Amino acid sequence: MSDRALKAATRVLAGNWRGTYTVPAAGLYPHQWSWDSAFIAIGLRHISPTRAQQELDAIFSAQWADGRLPQIVFNPRLDVQYSPGASFWQSQRIPGSPAVPTAGLIQPPNHALATLLVHQSDPETSERRRFLSRSYEALLGWHRYLEERRMGDSGLVHIVHPWESGMDNSPFWDAPLAAIDASFGSDIPRPDLKHADASHRPSNAEYGKYLYLAARYRDHDCDDRDESYPFVLEDPAVHALLIRSEWAMAEIAELAGADADGHRRRARALTDALESLWDDELGCYVANDVVAAEHQRFRTVSGLIPLLVPDLPHTDELLRSLSSEHFGLGRIALVPSHDLTAPTFDSARYWRGPSWFNTAWLIAEALSERGFADEARALASQMADLGLDHDFPEYVDPHSGEPRGTQRFSWTAALSLDLYERLHAKGEVL
Q1: CA 346 remoteness from chain centre
Q2: CATH number assigned to the domain covering 3-426
């Protein structure tokens, strides 16, 4: 990544800044998204640690009374630009919701990792603003919500909507959605199609199920107690990010003078639980449909994200899968979201094949930590080059590297910038 690319990434983040938070992309995503902001903060810390702290402060300020961090914090003035918006969720009518309008769903728990990295970038400013201690209290509530409201006997965190995985139309959700015979109806609002090609986005049929599930969850006051709710899944990436966040919480606890051992014990227990999602034949982790009691046997990037987990028993197998014909590390643009050889692979459509920059960052992090410095460096260079060449796209075609989705995407700029700063300044990727 050249200095020109560094300046370009900085301009994207400046252009998407809204005073206290950063939108993922102007137009298509006009609000604040939860796991986006955590990824964005990781890059912002190199530009302004204070602004990175404010990014996380903004999402923590929208925390619900039960501890959940909402998927979206809405700007109500832009409600018609995104569906479903604040008028759909009407969160102000739900007990325990915050003063600001939000969605009731959640997103993957990458916030503790981002908090730790942001603090480490400028401990002095963090201490002066009491950022770490304030964040730790919010994170305790967030993790407690996941443990108490979103876990069954398996010890695995549950998601109740495809959006909660962050990987909206993954093949993991095909069978669970097909088993639901209800839909939102034929009039599906799609303001997203004003900003992105329909062939790159989830279909109307998928959106009908998405909105049906969201409306049902909303109408039950988002209380996680709808016993006949038809979509409950255990996703390997969501669970792996929770494990990684518990390890980050242990470090935060030590810095904050709190009990770190409890977080370490929790991380190990969560790691043990993850093994029920391992598929030896596929060489990766898979999702589990709790309702149908069936594993969803697809190779996806979600099943590779557990590489981030310390002391994982299947590291070697995951590394082989990553380099195999199924994901093509080093021969393909970044890391495809789905098995390149699968009949369900689609190089253009959202999470059914295209390569994303946030998952590439997670894989680069894992590779670097496991001693694969050259592979991590190559992945970082790809991120930087593709970002600059295509104005920081949302995702890319894994074969051609051509941009897909929207452009000037914040986490693309932020995470490319993060790897550049660490590579350029210290001679290493991470």
Answers
A1: 21
A2: 1.50.10.10
